[in-house]
Amino acid sequence: MLPQAYELPAALFLFLAGAVSCLAGYRLFKLVLGIYGFILGAGLASSAMGASNTVGMIAAALAGGIVGALILVFAYFIGIALVGAGLGALVLHFGWSYMRPGDPPALAVIGMALVGAIGAMVLQRYVIVVSTAFGGAWTMILGGLALAGDRVAARTAHSQPVWILYPTAASTAKWVPIAWVALGVVGAAVQLGITGRKS
What we know:
By secondary structure, this protein is mainly α. The chain has one domain. The protein is about 70% helix and about 0% strand. The chain has helices at about 5-25, 30-45, 55-75, 75-100, 105-120, 125-150, 175-195; strands at about 1-5, 160-165. It has a two-stranded antiparallel sheet with strand order 1-2. It starts with a strand and ends with a helix.
């Protein structure tokens, strides 16, 4: 949660961070972990502040972002497992939204997160490439929609004095899955063929 005035810079940061993750996530994995740790930490810490406390929100976002980035960077293997777990949960949520309305059951989310975490540890290189490509593609889409002023991605921003990032808000648009898969496949191909090659 950030003051609404910071929506454009935050959206630009999301788009650029997503591009780095999508196209060079394996090569720059520690940087990508730091970026996503910052985003997660900033989101969690700033949401603990009141919507009217602008300075507190920004300070909490910066402090939480730094702590989140440090945690994921220093916990490299835990970070790999968390990336796999996050990807597993994202895939389940995305697929579930096409089968049934609402959120998937908690046990299914936990199960997919465990499968993703175990898979990430066993097949590190490929899981890192695929998860950073598809995670980066999703982040690019969220940032791009917020930059373009998409009503779905920004619906709460205009009704409140704060901008709240909803990572799954864009999944209601019918073209989003196609764009996500296309960007993810391109990102994985670029990483496997160019930026993520073993030297």
